[in-house]
Amino acid sequence: MDFTEENIKKYNSQFKEAQPEEIISWAIGHSKNAVVTTNFRPYEVAILNAVTQVRKDVPVVWCDTGYNTPQTYAHAEKLIATLDLNIKLYVPKQTAAHRDVVMGIPGIDDPRHAEFTEQVKLEPFKRAMAEIKPDVWFTNLRKGQTALRDTLDIFSLSRDGVLKVSPFYSWTDEQLDTYLEERNLPNEHKYFDPTKVLENRECGLHI
Predict the structure, then answer these.
(1) Could you give the CA distance from residue 46 to residue 185 in angstroms, rounded to a whole number?
(2) Burial 150-188 (b: 16+ CB within 10 A, else e)
(3) 9: how many CB neighbours lie within 10 A of its CB?
(4) How far apart are CA 48 and CA 70, in angstroms?
(5) DSSP 119
(6) What InterPro entries does the record tag this protein with (predicted)?
(7) Cα Rg of the chain (Å, integer)
(8) Which of 59, 72, 117, 133 lies at a 20 to 30 A Cα distance from 102?
(9) Sheet (strand 86-90) strand order
(10) At what angle do helices 44-54 and 20-29 cross, to 10 degrees?
């Protein structure tokens, strides 16, 4: 199915009050090759659970920067096992230990920060999307996270024309807390993204 900006507006109006499961079911029904991406940050379990409840074998792309906290790695292992995720792991071509010697983690004002972000996040992500070639991409983007994300909606188009679906787009942390509690799903808040530094700074994947 071809997704256009005109169609996107219609879908956002149509599904404005829909529950995540309804949004996901519709998107999967209109896709040939859906994928969900995750970094196992706080509340990611919601999108992982919701998508896999609709379709168990959806590929789950995890672009691991190599700089996650021990708590995030333990959380990821737990979710991969309990949700039986069809995980597709993508990592940078250079190890974190090697990069620590030659570059470290540059600050956002350091000219090398763009290269760092490309190495640890953008290149693995682009490689994943090039290999899997999805037409529908499930994410847990939410309104209020960054200025850019405030301009998006439940449905949007990526730069490559992939339909990006964010079923929890309008949900608050409090609503997600209730969602997780009702389903006895774990959460983990000790998370570190070396490319963002500031919580409300865009990482580059969704530009």
Answers:
(1) 8
(2) eebbbbbbbeeebbbbbbbbebeeeebeebbeeeebebb
(3) 12
(4) 20
(5) I
(6) PAPS_reduct_dom, Rossmann-like_a/b/a_fold
(7) 17
(8) 72
(9) 86-90, 59-63, 34-38, 136-138, 163-165, 155-157
(10) 50
Cα gap 18→108, rounded to integer Å: 38
pLDDT digits (tens, 9 = 90+) for 30-67: 999 999 999 999 999 999 999 999 999 999 999 999 99
| Token pair recorded at residue 60 | 């789950």
Question: Quick one: which of 36, 103, 109, 111 has its CA closest to 67?
Answer: 103
Q: Which residues contact 126 (CB under 8 A, 6 or more apart)?
A: none
Which tokens belong to 41? 């940050």
Strand partners, 37: 61
Q: Would you give the DSSP letter of residue 49?
A: H
Query: Structure tokens of 201?
Result: 């700074």
